[in-house]
Design brief:
mainly alpha, 4 helices, elongated
């Protein structure tokens, strides 16, 4: 059971980092930019969402903030 828990935690952290870094590093396609503009997501908000994704992935690493990190994700 501990092995399964460890695998799930590592998977969650990997996905959080991949999403956060992808959001910060990659420039979205023109279609994505148009869609985000229609719902009101500007460039600073997109960057903030990337940082939030990285932060929540880090929170999952620590036992005292595990629940809070998962709730924010």
């Amino acid at each position: 059971m501990k092995i399964l828990s460890a695998i799930l935690i590592l998977l969650s952290i990997f996905i959080g980092f991949a999403h956060g870094l992808g959001t910060l590093m990659n420039s979205p396609s023109p279609e994505s930019l148009k869609m985000m503009a229609e719902v009101g997501i500007t460039e600073p908000v997109r960057k903030l969402l990337g940082v939030l994704s990285l932060t929540t992935a880090l929170l999952v690493l620590f036992p005292k903030t595990f629940l809070f990190g998962n709730l924010l994700r």
